[in-house]
Amino acid sequence: MTGGWNGVNKDAPCPACAGIHRCAWSPDGTTLHCFREQKPPDGMRVIKPEERGALFGFIDKNQRHDFGQTAPPPRVGFAAEFERLRKNLTIERREVLAEQLGLPVRALESLDLGWASFRDLAALHVWSAGTRPLYAWVFAERNARREIVGLQFRAPDGGKRNIGKRGLVIPVSFGAFSGPVVPIEGATDVGALAAVGVCAIGRPSNVGGVDQLAELLAKDARDVLVVGENDSKGDGRWPGLEGAESTASKLSATRRRPVRWSLPPNDVKDVREWLVKRAAAGLDLTDVAACELAGRELLAELQRNSRTIEPHATGSVEVAQPVGGFVPFPTDALPEPVRSWVRDMARALNVNEAGLAVLKLATTAALIGNARRLQLTGSWDASSIIWAVVIAPSGEMKSAMLRCAGSTLSAIDRDLREQSAGEVAAAGSVQHGARPAGRALVLRDCTIEAAIKLSMGNPRGLVYMSAELAGLFKSLNMYRQGGKGNDRERLLATYDGDENSRDLVLGSQYVARCALSVLGVSTPAAFRQSLGKAGEEDGALARFLVTMPPTTEPVSFEALREAARPDTKVIETLERELASLQLGQDDEPVVLVLTDSGVRAFSAFRAEVLRMKKEAVGALRAHYLKLEEVCARIAIGFYCIRAQSGDLGLEAGEGVDGTTIEAAARVTLWLAREAARVYSILLGASAATADPTVRLRQRLLDVFERHGDLSKRDAKNCAAEFAEVDDADFEHLLRGLVSDGELESETVATGGRSKEVFRRMHKRKATNSERIEASACACDPESAPGHSAATDPAMVPISETASGSTATDSTTADVTPVPPSTPVLDDPAIAPPSAGTSAAIPGMPHELFDEREVWD
Asked: Which residues on adjacent β-strands are paired with residue 117?
């Protein structure tokens, strides 16, 4: 620490975390800065929480830390201490713990277990004086050489504390099992698996103990199946899954053998809870044979649902590599008769099936609208609303695809409007407010106020359909003074079918479920410009299912004439049936539920999506955050199509089955890959990168942006994802950012010692005149002798700008210098990849080339 702070040491450890380095006391002894623990020690309170630690102050403001009187905790010989605590364990004390955990007593007999009294806990400084339990059970944690390196204490209320180093919980009978070795979290789960005859090793945490595991299993010929926990969080994190995958990946690399990982059954958090539920269902835990049979069933299920990680792989083999060229749409996943319609119409129009299929997803959702919702959990219902767009240059049959996909929508809309006109005519001339509500389905050019008004007479919802979808966003706030208003926010609310209203002088407009599906086509430049930067930031872009299908090979006019005309009667009949699905009571949606197979299928899909979220950044991550909802919305359409068409394979009852969810998941994963490809073209390659190095670089820049000057050690401790990065790799990452001009380093003196600190290097804005000069030099390098990145005015760091200098042009703009070899494009936002480059889009340079090669 700097500024005279007094660091902790082995004789005076940190009272919060018991650490002996990094943590420090303020010079006056009133404040403790701990870098590991956020819970205050006895007699102290939190002054300022931090990402990994906190500043603590005394509750009694007159109290000060006595630097000369801190007594160190006693040195512990863990093997001898545990042997003493083991002798405290009686049969009765073991039985009490077994009853609390719901395990048979023999399960605990396989573990290194002891018992500590209140006096033992006080002597070992376990728990603080105010929170110390009367007693606790003790588990021994060992290293790979089976030496006891630490002790874990478990209180009667389930609270845990540790002393010493973290290690593995290795059962006494570890070498006696013949089946696969199952590294699992926690000591009690080891006991649960031992009770059913499965060989397990306890990991200290979701990502801890990997090095010790690798050493212990280095010469073990048995297979390894890492098991995590079903502990997903509301913010999208899933520590159990992420830790299991990470552990399996590292073990696979060190063992040079495939390693599998899996999760417990869907309805339980961990394997101990699974065993408790089996016992409640009738499993006799005293019957060894019955328990071992249940253990074999569990092991078979874990293996069946497992993922395999090959040596040196960075993830499970099922995870796709970074997105590259176009992948054909999985048309076979569509239910009949939509599948046949897509194929036949694509041949008739000579277009790619992807465009028609994506548009058909949106038309199906629009036809169903508020008539159906899918209940995923007690508080999560998915609505039948989809926003979809096909992006292609002019002349690529976009309008024809939209016209064919939305023909039934247009026909129904005409019928509704004629019916509405008849009702108005029958009502005659009436005062304002008594006119019958307008009936419609399709909107093509209207304001958000008009959409809300029409929704009042159309409880099923509406659909916006346009041959140039850019107009939807360009029209927002058009009629507001100064172009300011909340039209954009109210439009985005229709994606979730939320309530929408508008208060007017003559009355209020209110719609309980204002649902608006969107489908259309657009050119790349128009779509990108209409959404703008705000589309990335407010989630408008992430809401769209996007595809940019390749151009098909042209065919002769004779071939087009000979192509069979698709039979549209079947699909039109089906779609009219979807449009006539009845609403529930009070115009509320009829709620569909998942069958058991549907729950399993959606859980497997969600696990895949959570891994994808972890790898994505920026705009692509925002899109991936909506994939679970997208899958559910597609599944509503697939289920209703199957039900209306009399699919014999559909499970009985009002439930969305596993087959439907799996088909929707296939389509959703294709859409995710296609979004990554399209984003890389529209927004640049960095928008779709899955490179972990790129993610770490960006995270590190964010850390310096937030915290300012940091040493290498402080920077590494600022984010949890840096903990697994090797020191040498982290050093290389820092030096790379310095070389790239993103960071700068400086050696400073602190307390008689010197250390290197790093800080974010911000680039100043260039004036318009500098910007024009930079562009001219880029286009004609010979006109600017000696031009280089070092002399480019757009790249001059603030720290290198001459003091007192002022810009000659008051208007400034962010400038990214164009390399001399790169021609200036009319629309750099949609510049395609260069000719002859690899198919992997992330990292591709954007240069001029033959336009057709982007699809190869």
From this structure: 135
444-471: pLDDT as tens digits: 776 766 777 777 767 888 888 888 777 6
Residue type, 514: C
What pLDDT score does 563 carry?
Answer: 66
Q: What is the pLDDT of residue 249?
A: 84
Q: What angle do CA 282, 283, 287 make, to 5 degrees?
A: 135
Q: What is the pTM of this model?
A: 0.48
The vertex-644 CA angle with 642 and 647, nearest 5°, equals: 40
Note whether 392 and 550 are within 8 A (CB). Answer: no
Angle between helices 338-349 and 353-368 (to 10 degrees): 140
Tokens 């090797």: give the residue. Answer: 726
Q: What is the pLDDT of residues 374-390, one digit of tens each?
A: 999 888 889 899 999 99
Q: How far apart are CA 95 and CA 101, in angstroms?
A: 10
pLDDT at 212 over 60: yes
Least confident of 48-52, 176-180, 778-782, 831-835: 831-835
Q: How far apart are CA 667 and CA 665, in angstroms?
A: 5
pLDDT tens, position by position, 402-423: 999 888 888 888 888 887 777 6
Angle formed at CA 422 by CA 421 and CA 428, multiple of 5 degrees: 90
Is residue 483's pLDDT more than 70?
no
Residue 153, beta-bridge partner list: 138, 161
In terms of C-beta density within 10 A (0-12 exposed, 13-18 middle, 19 or more buried), how is residue 361 classed? buried
**What pLDDT, on the 0 to 100 scale, is given for residue 668?**
94
User: Tens digit of pLDDT for each residue in 214-260?
Assistant: 888 887 888 899 999 988 776 667 788 888 888 888 888 888 888 88
Could you give the dihedral angle defined by the CA atoms of residues 84, 85, 87 and 90, in that order, rounded to the nearest 10 degrees?
170
| 3-class DSSP assignment, residue 579 | helix
Is the pLDDT assigned to residue 319 strictly greater than 60?
no
Q: Which positions ≥6 away from 25 have C-beta within 8 Å?
A: 5, 6, 8, 31, 32, 33, 65, 67
Contacts by residues 31-39 (CB-CB < 8 Å, ≥ 24 positions apart): 31/55, 31/56, 31/57, 32/56, 32/57, 32/65, 33/1, 33/5, 35/717
C-alpha 50, offset from chain centre: 24
Can you tell me the distance from the alpha carbon of 842 to that of 321, in angstroms, rounded to the nearest whole number? Answer: 11
Write the secondary structure of 581-638 as one string of H (helix), E (strand) and C (coil): CCCCHHHCCEEEEECHHHHHHHHHHHHHHHHHHHHCCHHHHHHHCCHHHHHHHHHHHH
| Residue 208 clears pLDDT 60, i.e. is over it | yes
Of the candidates 355, 378, 458, 447, the residue with the CA atom closest to the CA atom of residue 413: 458
CA 415 to chain centre: 43
Mind listing the pLDDT tens digit for each residue in 31-40?
A: 999 888 888 8
Please write down the long-range contacts of 155-160, taking CB distance under 8 Å and 24 or more positions apart. Answer: 155/127, 156/100, 157/133, 159/127, 159/133
Q: From CA 244, how far away is CA 228, in angstroms rounded?
A: 5
| Count of CB atoms situated within 10 Å of the CB of 452 | 21
List Cβ<8 Å contacts ≥24 apart for 268-272.
268/230, 269/229, 269/230, 269/231, 270/184, 270/185, 270/186, 270/189, 270/229, 270/230, 271/184, 271/189, 271/192, 271/193, 271/227, 271/298, 272/101, 272/102, 272/103, 272/188, 272/189, 272/191, 272/192
Provide CB contacts within 8 A for 513, sequence distance 6+: 370, 459, 461, 497, 498, 499, 589
Predicted local distance difference test score (pLDDT) of residue 799 = 36
CB 627 within 8 A of CB 544: no
Please state the three-class secondary structure of 82-116 as a single string.
HHHHHHCCCHHHHHHHHHHHCCCHHHHHCCCEEEE
pLDDT average, residue stretch 52-60: 87
- Rg, the chain, Cα only: 32
Residue carrying the six token digits 């009294």: 117
Q: Which amino acid is at 537?
A: E
Closest CA to 135 of 145, 147, 126, 144: 126
